[in-house]
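Need fresh eyes. Consider my entry:
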Amino acid sequence: MAIRKPGSPSKIRQSAGRTVVQRLDANPAVTCAQVPAAEVYYHSDFLSAAQCEALVAMIDAHRRPSTLLSDKAGTGFRTSESCDMDRHSPDVRPIDEGIALLLGLDPARGETMQGQRYAPGQQFRAHHDYFHERESYWPAMKASGGQRTWTAMVYLNDVEEGGATWFPQAGIRVAPRRGLLLTWNNMNPDGSPNELTLHEGMPVVEGVKYIVTKWFREGDWIQ
């Protein structure tokens, strides 16, 4: 029986991935994770303490139960709380545009930045950020900008215990640290979805974890 792949190579995604990698490699503030399985980078102190605190306050004020696109995940798969960040807010816009500038991607390709809150015991089990083309949600995602390419995540606080972002197949585990930006290419160098970017938000054991996540598409998300 043939192995079912999550998607085909794409010259558009290939070119975008190469351009972002070159930009990040040339930035002295950015560190490459140096793992063969995926293109993963870090930027320490990307946000100031004041910026992190402002975003935490927004998340606390507007949080709701997190949702999933897939209709196949079971109960308990994603138990955090989320909120959509207003990209036009004076506290959000510089951060939102700053992430796009860091990666060298058109802001129009960025989805609305999402804030997430994880209380003790809450988690997001292993998943991919790219879209699976055989899922029921794919036609709507294809029409609204197409495949996801890069993910950027910023930790807004230190966490006493737990809450790491773990890529079990790529061999990376990142503990929350205030202001740290973690970004990765969800595609392989040829522009096909990289299955080794499977990752999870591990359960928080003690404390509360706050992050913001920004996803970018291959086409314009803002129509």
Notes: The chain is about 20% helix and 25% strand. The longest strand covers residues 209-217. The chain has one domain: 27-217.
